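Exercise 3.2. Students should predict the tertiary structure of the chain below and write it as structure tokens, then compare their answer with the key that follows.

Predict this chain's 3D structure.
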Amino acid sequence: MTVVIEPTKAEAEPTPVTLAAADGLPLGALHFAADGAPRGRIVVSGATAVPQGFYRRFARFAAARGFDVLTFDYRGIGRSAPPSLRGFHAEMLDWGRLDLPAAIEHMAAPGLPLYVVGHSYGGHAPGLLPNHDKVAGFYVFGTGAGWHGHMPWSERLKVLAMWHVGFPVLTRWKGYCPWKLLGLGEDLPVGVYRQWRRWCGFPRYFFDDPAMRGIERGYAAVRAPMAFVNALDDRWAPPRSREAFIAAYRNAPIERQDIDPRALGAPIGHMGYFRPAAEPLWRGALDWFGGLSRPVAAAPVT
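Answer key:
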């Protein structure tokens, strides 16, 4: 007799979902169903040029612990990319103003708290959202201002060469930014690349860009609790780079965590937050969400 062991919901394959961005553009997403009755919902807001598949381990981990999880790709990336990026128009601002809002609308449900777990750009996006008020908390790994001056010297030289020598030539040749050619992630639409390159030239990212005056108002409007976690060996987003950006969230309760990679027994860098060794960090994020949903005891009457 053959015994068939059915997978749990969290172990089962995620369900493909097609989201409609605010301007109608279709976006590819995956829904990881909670194992049992969900106690909350999570949208994963990924890093620049990183496809949603990179976050599947975290999504399965959270689903196994009672969270419905949605991963998705921004326009021009992964499951949301057109057949060719040449001639495809997209900007980095579209990701936060048009794409992530659609994921939040899809996951918002009465009676269940909705959280966002971000990575790098995922910490830039909350202040761009028109519907940030639907999110009960943002937990973000590896967000920084992107300016080379916040990085260690060896990384500064590589980043300056990338922005001013390598990618300008390659992007003109290809008609898009061939990030994948150098093994750095997904290729990028030229509009995304140009904005990213420009803003990484300022110590406070687009807050220092004269063409972006007024953008800080959206960041001041965010009032949901936020946690920002940065590894001490993250050469792209060390803690001082984080501080240069998150000062704009001036009305949100903010917690900061600086992680020593020796505590995990493995390097973290800018991408290790979502690799298997980072499971203790994932547990910390879910525990933090649990703390937000826990009622606060009333002060005793004196």
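Discussion points: The domain at 15-293 is CATH 3.40.50.1820 (Rossmann fold). The helical segments are 56-64, 92-107, 121-124, 153-174, 190-199, 216-220, 239-246, 279-293.
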